[in-house]
Batch of 4 targets.
Target 1
Amino acid sequence: MLSEHGIKIAPSTYYDNLNREPSKRVLRDAEITELIATTREQRFIARFGARKMWLHLRRQGHDVARCTIERLMTRNGWQGAVRGKRVRTTIGDAKAERPLDLVDRDFTATCPNQLWVADFTYVATWSGTVYVAFIFDVFSRMIVGWRAATRMSTQLVLDTLEHAIWARHQAGAGDLSGLVHHTDAGSQYTSFAFTSRLLQAGVDASVGSVGDAYDNALAESQIGIYKTELIRPEGPWRDVEHVEHETLNWVHWFNHERTHESVDDLTPAEVETAHYAARNRLVPTE
């Protein structure tokens, strides 16, 4: 009995509490906890932190407070992925002539195909190192081109550029004149073949200063997402084909389903769709 331990409580109070139904908050917490647990079983979303999880659930029609998501994820020991340290892959050629830095760390754009940033990273596989290159549109954060290869060569970045040009042409952007393509000072990006292809496409080359990560910070940040959300948690990787297949899936998700805080918590596809819809409304009809 509680009274034997010096706790004075009426028996009726004790039994009332014992038989009391769970409160609305307890029931709601259990419902949301189950919702989060189920959502975390989806690929890529398992790496979401509280804010990303809150946004995702709201986009799915679940009206839940951000503080509730934070509280329940903390209670269950769920946390978002933590980015690892950036490893330098591109190595500059001190003898090569480099284009000017046309960006000067101002990673802003007012429309698609105004500024692209590019970089590449490496993936360790059972069969050796695989290099994956990306080109991002700064306005929408969309991945407009990517390629994987077993060699860190000019051909890798050339193939990525060709992919981006082709993809934009397919989307109706036939004229890329005025576009700025910005990279770090890696020898692959300052090669004659690469700069010649940019010139042929009417694209202005821009290269940051040697060894300064801030001059290509946006591309490095986006690649950090790739390493954090796909490469590190889903290894080990077998070979280049394995990396290519899963990167293809991740890129589609990144462009069409993953929201980005830097673009008002929209997906890259939503940003570009909204831009062109607004532009078309401004075009006068005859």
Target 2
Amino acid sequence: MDIKDIARPLDGASISAFLKSLPAKPLLLGLGEARHFVQELGEVRNEIFRHLVEHEGYRSFAIESDCLMGLVVNDYLATGEGTLDDVMERGFSHNFGASPANRELVRWMRTYNEEHDEKLRFFGFDGPLEYWAASPRQALTGLYDLLNGAVVTRETLDTLLGPDDRWSNEATAMDPSLSIGQSADAQRLRLIADDLVSLLDTQAPGLGAEDRELAALYGRTAVGLLRYHYWMADASPARWTRLSALRAAMMAANLRAIAEHGPALVFSSNLHLQRNKSFMSFGDQTLEWWSAGALVGTKLGDRYAFLATALGTVGVDDPPADTAEGVLSTLPWDHSLIDARRLAEAVTKPAKRVSQDFAYFPLDPAQLDMIDGVVFLRKALV
């Protein structure tokens, strides 16, 4: 089989043809990253999203960034209040606000909203997490205020939360003894969070649609953060596997909520959006957990689709000819869209690419049949 028979240059026509080839129109279209902070990939993503908005009815964009910080970006898109500089600083985690492609995306989405009645929405779908977790204050107090309390007094809630820096201590990532996640205060806050979420279930009809959505976000974030903090304090060998799984579960819960506004383009690491289990070396351990894509795919079925990205030359590193990336590098286009399942048939017994760049995740040829398509960039500057 000629590799060109299962690939097309990446453009609007190939994107629409890819969507038509799927068994159902996806509520969530995942576009994975082989590596964060590849500017050209961000630019390609923006082109794909613009086409999806203008020709395929997409109205939402979601990125692997703090779900609460994402509210800042969405408010700016809706109102235009504030400055773009401030939004990029306060609306993204993981340093994603420094990306020129992300800045251009937010600018374009705001301009679109100024010119159209049907508005675009922006979501972060990660928890308020790095390798450690943020304070649950914003989520807990936000939910508390929307429900007018009733579970405990505000003073009790503030006392139990205490100073935010005792929650957001980065050193807890490597030293569980520094975490307060299993303290008496944290344990009581978990019960309070559970009671507040239960209260939301009983009071939801009295809230407007926007407040219900915001309260649900606060509720699942508060519960998820307190769970995460609990396991931050765990000293067993299972600690990082459990934390990785909890993060994936928080992502998946946010994605399911975003799907209710679908269809949406979701941009994140291939590792998070893939349908198969994730594996990652961590010290002398190999962590293994079900990815957010696998979790949300279980719920959405054919309404979830996944486009992985793959890179040819990364910096000065050319792919070996017997890898999937090496085969794809023979395509005549700088940017290509490939039918991944047919690629699995065309590339027989490929080797897995090995990279010295720890931030780059090459395609796993054994998993090609679990990917719907591959967006391939012949060269990537890092």
Target 3
Amino acid sequence: MKQAWYAFWMCFGMFCGIPCPVKIWDEEARPRMISCLPLVGGVIGGLWALALWLCRLLTLPAGVTAAILCAAPWLLSGCIHLDGYLDCCDAIFSRRDPERRREILKDPHTGSFAVIGMALLAMAGCGLWRSAGICAYLPLILLPVVTRACAAIAVSRMKPMQTSQYAGGFQKSKTPPALPVVCLALGVILPAALLGLKGLAPLAGACGYWIAVWYGARQLGGVSGDVSGFALTLGELAGVAALTLL
């Protein structure tokens, strides 16, 4: 129980942009850390839904609301997943050989493909939120839970990129991550059962994540933090598209 407590706060401090109230680190809890990602996703999803509620309460202009809701998940996660998305855009769309793609992935400089990818992502996100009608809160809360549950499963079960930190500490345990599996199942089934088509956003997010992580891992030779961030960002975009269009 103590290790699980440490793992949660370690995960919160690393993968959430909100200042962590508990400053602890225990290397023995490191393998459990990724399994706590869906719990952090619940915090982010709740604040994302709160932002939507406040925008409606204040009757903000549609364009302002769209910008706030588009940027909210990036800012709430400390832009860590967005950073992975941008790095992967530079590497994957360079169309170089796999070895050179991995070198570009680790390059700290921002390339033209990252800029283009960011522009397209922001336009897509703002456009979807600008067109959104009445959105249900429950799917929006559960969308970050589901995408992060997918990320925890992918990191623990898929082949890691050899240069990734996931090839070490995060994969010491080969035990199936029970908490992410449960969160994924509940996050997909619950809103769909309660809301019908309006509740399919988390399912769309999960599908978007797995398609993107498969593509990223295939292009770069395995899963890394950047590949997972790339997939998570696109998965959430897919979920927002379903939330808006359905």
Target 4
Amino acid sequence: MRFDVLTLFPEIFSGYVSQSLLSKAIENGLVQIDLHDIRKWTLDKHQRVDDRPYGGGPGMVMQVEPVVECVEAVQKTGENPGNLIMLTPTGKPLNQRLVEELVQCPRHILLCGRYEGFDQRVVDILNPQEISIGDYILNGGEVGAMALIDSMIRLVPGVLGDEQSSQDDSFSTGNRLLEFPHYTRPRDFRGRTVPEVLLSGDHGAIAQWRQEQSLQRTRERREDLL
């Protein structure tokens, strides 16, 4: 799976792409991430990509020209133009079902905004899929892009050590309950012990306990899922 990230600050991703599962997935050829600096497509000698909004108001707006030129150039670098995604708080909320739909596409171009957002003509011309990672405001789309990449690569075959892990995750298709609690060594820590059923070796009893715990946790924390 290929991700092209379009941003004003590509250096933000240097540590992210070199760690943990993502780093191994890139090394094994399962995931490809290419970073593109939007400033390279501006015609301004000072590499400005933003300007004051027409009509007045606070903040600056990312200009249409460098953004559209950047996207169109990057789209031509692959066998197919890919799925263009704009990270924006006004977009469709990201959830596991949407992630499962997105992962069916082999290439995604992630457009990260800054300041007060994009000139509306970026949307009008490019018609991106607009996605929000939550009802809150960040300084830019980079964190959202990382969250989107992280959620998608888990579903790429070979990325996780055990494919069953993603199937048992909270919110996964066929699993409307929150995931049950997990335990590992030591058996006793400060008087808090591992539930006996998990030590019993009775797989049927363990499965029942986990189902009951998932139901209880969901009822307490996310009753809307029921």
